[in-house]
Design brief:
two-stranded antiparallel sheet; alpha+beta; four-stranded mixed sheet; 7 helices; globular; Alpha-Beta Plaits; 262 residues
Length: 262
Amino acid sequence: MGFFTDTSVCIGCKACEVACKEWNQLPADDPLEFTGMSFDNTGQLSASTWRHVAFIEQRKPMRAPTGAGDDGAGDLRLLMASDVCKHCTDAACLDVCPTGSLLRTEFGTVVVQEDVCNGCGYCVSACPYGVLDKRERDGRVWKCTLCYDRLVDDLTPACAKACPTESIQYGPLDELLERAAARVRDLHEDGVTDARLYGHDPADGVRGNGAFFLLLDRPEVYGLPPAPMDTTRDLPSIWRHAAAAALTLAAGVAAAFALERR
């Protein structure tokens, strides 16, 4: 199960942010002030903001010109996108957590058990998307659970339930991927040639996400990494090289002691 966020129909109403905070009883720790980035007043995802609506103003037409007298529907557009934890298939946060606080649920999502979290912060630095964050008041890590408590009761996550345009859609990932691919084709036929999917590819650096997006520009425009990578992918080879170095050092020390005795 997962999220498909179609940014082409997001109106920036922030209903998802409000619904997320209300349902999950998130504290108002983050200052709500305009950042200078258009209408963005939350800034980024955090331990107390599990949904963040980004606003990007561009001097760029929405669609390609189709003929004489068509300028591409104007030269100013406002891109809006509701960001959230990606619930990676290869989740580095799971690999580095020493207490088992982070776990994979029966829905394929990644959640934090806050009562088990010791606040070490390893997962914060391991996340390739910069999603995980520690709450200052208690030192523990918090993030989107995809409303696990609603899923077990067969309910839609609060953000998707509140979205008035169905920009945020919840369901089985294979069904969402089919719907997303059809939407991209429609946009391309309508001249929106920059439309693309992000986070859906099982061949990428995290083997795909449980939350993927339809974007209208390059990922970095939205503050998303263009090529996310599982930050623990090299750990096995690192440990093998470290073990080999340690054995070599031990052999050298043993040889030195043997020569000294002689």
